[in-house]
Amino acid sequence: MQADTHTGYGLAAGRWLFTLSTGRPGSRALWFALLVLGSWSAPLFASDPARPNMVIILSDDHSLLDSTVYGSKEVQTPNMQRLADSGMTFDRAFVASPSCAPNRAVLLTGLMPVRHGAEANHTRPHAGIKKLPAYLKELGYEVVAFGKVSHYNYTADYGFDYFAHDKFHEDVAIPEGVKWLRARSSDKPLCIFFGTNWPHVPWPATPEGYDPARVTLPPGHIDTPRTREARAKYYAAVTRMDNDLGLILDAARQVLGENTFFLHTADNGAQWPFAKWTLYDAGIRTPMIAAWPGKIKPGARTDAMVNWSDILPTLVEVGGGKPPADIDGKSFAGVLRNGKRKHRDKIFATHSSDGQYNIYPARSLRDGRWKYIRNLHPEFYFSTHVDLVQAEGYFGSWVDKARTDPAAAAVLQRYHQRPAEELYDLRADPNEQKNLAADERQAARLKAMREEVTAWMKANSDQGRVYGKPRLLDDPRRDEPPPQAGKARPGANPSPRSF
Ligand SMILES: [Ca+2]
Q1: Are 321 and 130 in contact (CB under 8 A)?
Q2: Scanning 33, 130, 159, 168, which has its CA 20 to 30 A from the CA of 416?
Q3: Residues whose CB is under 5 A from ligand 1 (ion)?
Q4: Is 473 within a domain?
Q5: Distance, CA 39 to ligand 1 centroid (Å)?
Q6: pTM exceeding 0.85
């Protein structure tokens, strides 16, 4: 990318307006400036008559810290870095739910899971909800998808003009999508989604150049040789994602030209303990980079808090439309356009379940500093594919080490058994290791955040529904994997613990 050679349109126009408005108060120049400013508010980028092409790139199960853009010195992500260098990096972007299907449905409906209905992983949203492709088609766009954009078999429900290669780890999706793009002849504005399945498991069979001895494990993990080997393979998977991103960026810039809006983000955190399927930041805080040569200042960084539900209305506004008012998402185009520093004060997130592997409903509220998590059923035993399938081959080494190592045993205990409430000071404890819910000094804060989550659930008719048959802490068979991969079904709905 060569965006650094372009003058930011917003910056240039801003300087121009500043120059005009430095006339004496009441001067004609000032009034003219105000008039122009007023006319700028809608539609966005009104001075650019063309609807930009849009390229949306989704990675799968990628935790934010595992990229150079967010500070990693170990994982190589040069293509994320060059996209970030040419656009705006979001330091506080969040998914609405930390697993694939619920959160991808948030992207494609602008609604939170409790409203779109795909609360459990591997489920589809309610029929009849207007989807993202429909909004963009109304604006004249051709809307296509390659790879994992919604959730495998449900892609057809979303109304893309064309989609292909949406099966599990159908890794030809990205090169095939690039080939399609290079062969395209339509002059319609294009919104193309690319969903790489990397770095979702199964990770590559070898570390592909990463040295297991040199990886850094996240705080709160158990250090074993098998964990290090798996971590290095995960890094290899991240770099495969980054390679896919590079293919897309190169082709899109060549084929679609300068007036192209790019957005790259990940659907949820990586498949590690305390990440995917959890409401810790490793599960919900997600990489997000937007670039638009000449429109978004290169190398910008923002701490405005945004949520995945905000992407749909943002794309509608970038495409020249009016963002819908009856959804949960709110357009953050103003953050892109002029560096507006704030977007949301609070981020709510929800998690329900994943087949018979994980049935653990939880809700969270996060502001700029504090995180409150409510585990609706602390009597449930927390499990996921990580411990029940062990396909990546390291969790057994955690169990082995916990037999003789009290610190490792404490990690396992924290993994499987969670308290009713958790409260973290993210400024002092960004890795959410010290639960302050029992700290008397935080009693008022805990009460306020508890009440806010209760009110949010009530306002959204959120019943805290349990999907599937939970594993209970006192069940001696709780560690047995399900006989087969199960689809989530509505089960008996025990009352969530009340507050
Ligand atoms: Ca995912």
Answers
A1: no
A2: 168
A3: 60-61, 100, 267-268
A4: no
A5: 41
A6: yes
Quick check: 272 pLDDT over 70?
yes
Q: Give the model's pLDDT for residue 495.
A: 57
Q: How far is the CA of 267 from the centre of ligand 1 (A)?
A: 5
Identify how many contiguous H helices and E strands the chain contains and give both numbers. Answer: 15, 14
Domain assignment present for 476: no
Residue 58 Cα, ligand 1 centroid: separation in angstroms? 9
63: domain CATH number?
3.40.720.10
**Distance from Cα 167 to the centre of ligand 1, integer Å:** 14
Task: Let me know whether 141 and 63 are in one domain.
Answer: yes
Q: How many domains does the chain have?
A: 3
- Alpha helices by DSSP H, 150-224: 173-183
- Quick: pLDDT tens for 90-146: 999 999 999 999 999 999 999 999 999 999 998 999 999 999 999 999 999 999 999
Whether residues 408 and 327 fall in one domain: no
Query: Are 193 and 297 in a shared domain?
Result: yes
- Ligand 1 centroid vs 7 CA: distance in angstroms? 36
pLDDT surpassing 50 at residue 15: no
What's the one-letter identity of residue 222?
Answer: I
What residue has token string 């009290």? 406
Q: Which of 289, 317, 347 finishes a domain?
A: 347
Whether residues 320 and 444 share a domain: the answer is no
Q: Which single residue is written with the structure tokens 């749909």?
A: 312
Handedness of CA 20, 21, 27, 32 (dihedral sign): positive
Among 317, 347, 377, the domain boundary falls at 347
Residues 223 and 341 both lie in one domain:
yes
Q: Is residue 65 part of a domain?
A: yes
- One-letter-per-residue 3-state SS of 89-113: EEEEEECCCCCHHHHHHHHHHCCCH
Grade residue 499 by pLDDT with cuts at 50, 70 and 90. Answer: low
- Helix axes of 395-402 and 406-416: crossing angle, nearest 10 degrees: 120
Instruction: Tell me, yes or no, whether 44 lies in a domain.
Output: no
Cα–Cα separations (whole angstroms), residue 259 to 50, 298, 327, 420, 481: 8, 14, 28, 49, 50
370-375 and 421-425 as β-strands: parallel, antiparallel, unpaired?
antiparallel
Its domain, for residue 404, covers 350-459
